[in-house]
Specification:
The complex is a heterodimer of chains A (230) and B (246). Chain A is mainly alpha-helical. Helix content of chain A is 78%, strand content 0%. In chain A, helix 5 packs antiparallel against helix 6. With 246 residues, chain B is of the alpha/beta class. Chain B has one domain: P-loop containing nucleotide triphosphate hydrolases (Rossmann fold). Chain B is built from 9 helices and 10 strands. In chain B, helix 3 runs parallel beside helix 5. Classes of the chains: A mainly alpha (230), B alpha/beta (246). The interface between A and B is medium-sized, with 22 and 29 residues. Chain B: One of its GO terms (molecular function) is ATP binding. Chain B: Belongs to the ABC transporter superfamily. Chain B: It holds the Pfam family ABC_tran.
């Protein structure tokens, strides 16, 4: 047991480093999600307006972030922005920016979809009591849309958290990158260490994502039950 | 006429190429109740939806309280506080409790004092026997209860004029009476000016001061209620009353 692979986790500061890496990952994801969701809701609302130019621009934005793979986006922002636009940002900021823009794009589509699936009668009866457009969105349409789109939003969040595992590609010291370093440094002493390191990383991601996924499923089920009970 | 609430002149409505309302002319005075009758698809709903700006119209003029309505969103938004409307499908907001559904207009649109409005809402709910349901969500109510709340929601804005668009059409038969009684009370006690689209002929006969009979988008008859049911002038109206087993 002297050289059992699990001990790699307790060698030196390995465990602390991994957890700090997870914290970096979590911070980037959390900031990107919060900013992205706020921008996404606003863009989603704008996309329900009847201004063709605005709709076209926002559509292009959405399609760009949806079609281009996240890895490419990360490289694009990390390598090309500094060179072409002389904009130097550390990897964590680039990552936060890319993820926030991606979340905003996806969220705008979720919000738009939810808003247009609120029945037209709801809009009319809101207008009939004298609500203006802002009030109509604020009190009637957005609250109902949020309820409709919450499961999709939670699923988006879990996808974002999972995708942060790409951050090592732009040299962010996230949990995967640190894990990789530890594996390489300890390869001689702990040949099976790789299994334990990635096992722990798996567990950390699972612990964050699974409850979210469970929550989304539960909300969806509840909503369907309610809809059928009407 | 001095006490004229609403006047419609030469109103035309198209859906794309389809001409759905032809040269509509009528007026309604304070306290008068008009029922709008006619076969399905004759344009009744479209007409009353034009009267609070939910449908735009191509030509013609609407005058409300002796002021010509300039049909833009801002004006309609002001006018809708005075012109209450209740729909067939009730359309309470499912994300708000009964009380909040009713408070939304008076407190957010009219910015009236919340406590004052709440007291008034209690009285209105008491009147329609639904005070106990103040804090429940619409999904917990029956169709008839929802429709009574929808009427209270419209009345809470202190409208001068009410539009009812087939408000009993999707209710179970035993729920219909309760809703109609509320409308009848509005006519009798509050002297409310109303235009009612309905398929309940007995009710129409009972409440109507005047009947507008609409067919294929034109007003074929504009007659006092009693006379219309006893002695309709046009064959189309006779046929219609017969088809309604009246």
């Amino acid at each position: 047991m002297a050289h059992s692979g699990i001990n790699v986790l307790f060698e030196g500061t390995n465990l602390t480093r991994l957890l700090l890496g997870m914290w970096t990952t979590f911070k980037i994801a959390a900031v990107a999600i919060i900013i992205g969701l706020i921008i996404g809701v606003i863009l989603g609302i704008l996309r329900t307006f009847h201004n063709p130019i605005l709709r076209f621009i926002l559509r292009i934005y959405l399609e760009f972030f949806r079609i281009v793979p996240t890895v490419v986006l990360l490289f694009l922002f990390y390598y090309i922005l500094p060179r072409q636009m002389n904009l130097h940002m550390p990897g964590t900021q680039v990552a936060t920016l890319v993820f926030a823009l991606w979340v905003a794009a996806e969220m705008s589509d979720i919000v738009r979809g939810a808003l247009i699936s609120v029945p037209i009668h709801q809009k009319e009866s809101g207008l009939a009591i004298g609500l203006n457009r802002f009030q109509l969105y604020r009190y009637v349409l957005v609250p109902q849309a949020v309820q409709l789109e919450l499961p999709a939003t939670i699923n988006l969040v879990t996808r974002v958290i999972k995708t942060t595992s790409l951050l090592m590609l732009i040299s962010v010291m996230d949990v995967v990158n640190i894990g990789q370093q530890i594996v390489e440094a300890n390869n001689q002493k702990y040949p099976t260490g790789v299994f334990w390191i990635y096992g722990l990383i798996f567990l950390l991601y699972f612990l964050i994502d699974y409850p979210l996924s469970w929550w989304a499923g539960r909300l969806e089920k509840k909503r369907l039950e309610q809809a059928n009970g009407e | 006429m001095a006490n004229e609430v609403l006047k419609v002149e030469h109103l035309e409505k198209y859906y794309q190429k389809k001409h759905v309302l032809h040269d509509i002319n009528f007026s309604i005075s304070k306290g008068e109740v008009i029922t709008l009758l006619g076969p399905s698809g004759s344009g009744k709903s479209t007409l009353i939806r034009c009267l609070n700006g939910l449908e735009d119209f191509r030509n013609g003029e609407i005058t409300f309280e002796n002021k010509k309505v300039i049909p833009n969103e801002k004006n309609w938004q002001q006018l809708r506080q005075k012109i209450g409307m209740v729909f067939q499908s009730y359309d309470l907001f499912p994300n708000l409790t009964v009380l909040d559904n009713i408070l939304l207009g008076p407190t957010k649109v009219q910015k009236r004092n919340v406590d004052e409005v709440k007291q008034e809402v209690d009285e209105l709910l008491e009147k329609v026997d639904l005070l106990d349901y103040k804090n429940v969500y619409p999904r917990q109510l029956s169709g008839g209860q929802k429709q009574r709340i929808a009427i209270v929601r419209a009345l809470a804005l202190h409208p001068e004029f009410m539009l009812f668009d087939e408000v009993t059409a999707s209710l179970d038969p035993e729920m219909v009476r309760g809703v109609l009684n509320i409308i009848q009370d509005l006519a009798d006690e509050d002297d409310m000016t109303m235009i009612i689209v309905t398929h309940e002929m007995n009710f129409a006969q009972q409440i109507a001061d005047r009947v507008l009979f609409l067919k294929d988008g034109s007003i074929l008859e504009d007659t006092p209620g009693k006379e219309f049911f006893k002695n309709p002038a046009t064959d189309q109206a006779k046929e219609f009353l017969q088809s309604m087993n009246f």
